[in-house]
Write a structure and sequence with these properties.
This is LpxI family protein. This protein is an alpha/beta fold. It has helices at 21-31, 62-71, 96-101, 105-111, 114-127, 135-138, 156-174, 197-209, 240-248, 266-276; strands at residues 11-16, 37-41, 54-57, 74-80, 131-133, 147-148, 180-184, 187-191, 220-223, 237-238, 253-257, 262-263, 279-283. The protein contains 10 helices and 13 strands. It is elongated and about 60 Å long.
Length: 292
């Protein structure tokens, strides 16, 4: 019997937030003979999970998640997709035993940075005997490779922008704020905050339209893994929607960290980037000594 089937006590759960990644992981797990159980996060996941066994849980409903883990023989879990909303204190439902075992759990869920919250969620799951695995362990071909994805390569100006934005993204990551930065003409013009990458790019497009960013210089988006980040959760991810937004913002391309970022819709993304004359490339900042 393939690992992860009901009855083995090692069934895979996918805790599904927003975006395309949860569906990629679910389909890949099924293709490998697993029968994943989906915990769709209310008001976050927009996928139709009718073809999978699933349960809808609120972001703060750890008690409901815990019950679902036990009822369905879950031994492994993947955290995938983005979560835009933090629960209010009155929405958090967690067993007293879990709160006692991990002091500060409620405070972290309410006020911690994204990485701190994800690490707390991992500890809660591990406390229930569930092994947390990364999305890249289920779908390894999603990891970005070094170098250009398509035919277009960054020119000298874009390379200078990549260096500036990468430095900013690393500083941002050390503060557990975000993973992305935009540089234009060697100057950092936007940092990703709680709004996420898409809204940051909309802000860049608005600044460009207002003339507050040069219309002659194009610029780049860089997304990097946070220093010290647990690779099992919230790796930087890009897809065709990211490409469309950088095009609307007048940028020349996207650079993501090779081996530590996820690329969705790879073939379609490469084709669309080539058609638009934009680059998508994997970089290795750690090899240049930029990351401690």
């Amino acid at each position: 019997m393939p690992a992860g089937r009901p009855g083995t006590q090692d069934r895979l759960a996918i805790i599904a937030g927003g975006g395309l990644l949860p569906r990629y992981v679910a389909d890949a797990a099924r293709a490998h003979g697993e029968n994943p159980f989906i915990f769709a996060l209310r008001a976050e996941s927009t996928e139709d999970w009718a073809g999978f066994e699933h349960r809808i849980v609120s972001v703060g409903d750890y008690a409901g998640l815990r019950a679902g883990l036990a009822e369905n023989g879950i031994g492994r879990a993947v955290l995938s997709g983005w979560v835009r909303r933090r629960p209010e204190w009155r929405d958090i439902r967690a067993p007293l035993a879990a709160i006692a075992r991990l002091p500060g759990v409620v405070r972290t869920l309410l006020k911690g940075g994204d990485d701190a919250v994800l690490k707390m969620v991992i500890r809660l799951l591990e406390g229930e005997g569930v092994r947390v695995v990364g999305a890249h362990e289920i779908v390894p071909d999603l990891l970005a490779a070094p170098g250009p994805l398509g035919r277009v390569r960054p020119d000298a100006a874009a390379e200078a922008d990549i260096a500036a934005a990468a430095e900013a993204a690393l500083a941002l990551g050390r503060l557990d704020i975000g993973q992305g930065a935009v540089a234009v003409g060697g100057r950092v013009v936007a940092l990703e905050g709680a709004e996420g990458t898409d809204d940051m790019l909309e802000r860049v497009a608005a600044l460009r339209a207002e003339g507050r960013i040069s219309r002659r210089r194009r610029g780049v988006l860089v997304k990097l893994c946070k220093p010290g980040q647990d690779f099992r959760a919230d790796l930087p991810a890009i897809g065709r929607e990211t490409l469309r937004r950088i095009r609307a913002a007048g940028l020349a391309g996207i650079a993501v960290e090779a081996g530590r970022s996820l690329v969705l819709e790879r073939e379609a993304l490469a084709a669309e980037a080539d058609a638009a004359g934009l680059f998508v490339t994997g970089i290795c900042p750690r090899e240049r000594g930029n990351v401690p």
